[in-house]
Amino acid sequence: MTMAAGDDALFLGIDCSTTACKAIAWDREGRAVAEGRAPIPLSNPAPDAWEQDARTWWEALALATREAAQALGDRGAQRIRAITITHQRETFVLTDERGEPLHPALVWMDARCRAEVAALAAKVGEARLHEISGKFPCTTPSLYKLLHLRNRIAPHLASRPVRMLDVHAFLAHRLTGRLVTSVASADPTGLVDMAARGFSADILAWAGLSASEVPALAEPGERIGEVSGAVAADLGIEAGIPVFAGAGDGQAAALGAGIVGPGVMYLNLGTAIVSGVISREYRTDRAFRTMMAATPGAFLYETDLKGGTFTLTWLARLLGADADAASSTLAALEREAEGLPPGADGLVLVPYFHGVMNPYWDDAATGLLLGFSGGQGPAHLYRAILEGIALEQRLHTDGVERASGPITELRVMGGGSRSALWCQILADVLDKPIVRAGTSEATSLGAGILAAAGVGAFAGIEEAAAAMTSRGEVFVPGERRAVYERLYREVYVGLYPALSGAMGRLAQIRESAR
Question: Which GO biological process entries does UniProt record here (predicted)?
Fold first, then answer.
């Protein structure tokens, strides 16, 4: 079935994140015309363990899509011309040959695989793993979680045929009947040969997988199938709508912020803090991880701090706020924190709440608070979290610039971008303009751009991005940047190197006490 993409066409960007699935219908100008949203449960069954029932990804997608279609009405839903998926990365599920889950999915935050990281790095070499996959060995890539799952959690799965599916592959199979994923969705698993843009035969062998146990690969924006009749009826949309390969949420966010070339860094202030710049050159460095970009043939030099807005949620919970009251609690803290001086009256936070990836690659690293005194309160801690994440982002950005060249601005999106205080702190700490993306839903918009380009609404992905993205409010560095420069140079950059040994010993003691 061929569907023309006229001026009234809509493009459905489906964003299946860690805690919710959003389905947003975008028009040719990048305006969100309708939206549906559904939660996804997240389980923490043991320390460092984070799991989901993969079937809830599909249930949430169906509910969110129906809600968006209902908002459009019967005739409006007929305007949907293409669908693309973006999603939480590194999360994967093992299924049978029919795509039915054999075990709960392991989520990107799951960090039970430290022993497997050490064992494979010792066997193969950190440098070789990094060179092939673009990822320095740590607990984040799916590869090590897979080894832990088959070695320790469910060893019976090591002796039977399986399919290892990332979130894109699982949902694409439900939508189209094909076991296929985007190369930009598969690469965060750590199984991909980045230079060859295909699964690495060596890494598959080290993982105990055959080529038949991973999905087919497509480039971002490539047509991978169409929505079948039975599925379309369940989703409230028309049968035959083409589905185009997407990308992981970080890569899609860059595209949705209008970043298709070098010099501008995207910064996603979400559950994790993720940033990156485009490069045409494949390069590896401990200062970043190398990812496939959502534009075919390009790469992202990407940084990742796993303790993002999660850290603010932790603070609200620490203060006794339940899920319903967390937003109002944090809003009150922000109002109070606005009146505090830079440096939060001497309180500095290192935000390693889930270990640290770039540039230190230390899964044993922990969060750190320096400078407590009796005159401080919750608002000081709130401001210290915002500042600590900004200081860490300065560390990341400096490292990327050494490889990519000058970065002229950072384009910010995600839930945290709604905070004017945080945006200004980032501008002051990084001494660079912080520009809000035209929408905080840049991740879904990135998927919508791939869908629009794929169905022929534009001549290509870059043209679609130029037409569908915009820039919002600009925050420029202010007079407080001098204070933050001293805080960064004289205090922050030395904290982890000075205390990393103690952090490692503390992790050993913690493990022995369990």
Answer: carbohydrate metabolic process
pLDDT band at 4 (very low <50, low <70, confident <90, very high): low
Please count the other Cβ atoms lying within 10 Å of the Cβ belonging to residue 408. Answer: 11
Please calculate the CA angle 229-232-238 and round it to the nearest 5 degrees.
Answer: 90
pLDDT in tens, 223-251: 999 998 999 999 999 999 999 999 999 99
95-145 per-position pLDDT tens digit: 999 999 999 999 999 999 999 999 999 999 999 999 999 999 999 999 999
| 8 A C-beta contact, residue 295 and residue 461 | yes
Residues in the chain: 514
Q: How many CB atoms lie within 10 A of CB 204?
A: 19
Helix (H) or strand (E) holding 333: helix 326-337
Distant-in-sequence, close-in-space partners of 503: CB < 8 Å, separation ≥ 6: 362, 364, 365, 366
Whether residue 47 has a cis bond before it, omega within 30° of 0:
no
Q: Between β-strands 216-218 and 289-292, what pairing exists: parallel, antiparallel or unpaired?
A: unpaired
CB atoms within 10 A of CB 386: 26
Single pTM value for the model: 0.92
